[in-house]
Amino acid sequence: MKFFSSFLVFATMIAVTGCAHARQPNCSDPVTARAEIDRTIHDLFDALREDDEASFKRLTTESFYAFDVGKRFDGTELLDAIRSAHAEGVQINWSIGPIDTKLSCDVAWSAWENIGSAGIPPDLQPVRWLESAVIVRENERWKIDFFHSQRAAKP
Q1: Is 15 a domain residue?
Q2: CB 107 within 8 A of CB 87
Q3: Contact between residue 49 and residue 92 where contact means Cβ atoms under 8 Å apart
Q4: In this structure, what DSSP letter does residue 98 have?
Q5: What pLDDT digit, counting tens, does each position of 46-103 carry?
Q6: Residues 148, 33, 108, CA angle at the centre, nearest 5°?
Q7: Is residue 5 one of the residues assigned to a domain?
Q8: Which residue, among 64, 56, 123, has the nearest Cα to 83 in the 3D structure?
Q9: What is the 3-state secondary structure (H, E, C) of 18-31?
Q10: Of 34, 96, 133, 138, which residue is the least packed, with the fewest Cβ within 10 Å?
């Protein structure tokens, strides 16, 4: 009986106050947040395309890491790897498809398909990647905390 009364008190408290995370006062408008998250993801690829370390650091958290090509990249290691590929003449073209974002106040998970090409011109090969990221809100900005990319299976 004690369990039932404790459960009833807890259930009543939840019904009256709501879940603590359901509506926090500092959460952004979901429509605005999704647009900002989309812009952050697109800006990250612009930074990678341009080998722009300052922008890359502005768009990622201090604890950022990525899984790509079967490896873990910490901090700017992903940017460094892409910068090295660019220095060897490799061109990587990205075209991000619609981004599906699940949002919970100041944390979001996004996934998308990225269709492009990679290689040394004129020998560019079509590539399709499946990608996702965990994005967090820090100091009024959305930043990427984790990024994952893998080549999609050929159809």
Answers
A1: no
A2: no
A3: yes
A4: -
A5: 999 999 999 999 999 999 999 999 999 999 999 999 999 999 999 999 999 999 999 9
A6: 35
A7: no
A8: 56
A9: CCCCCCCCCCCCHH
A10: 138
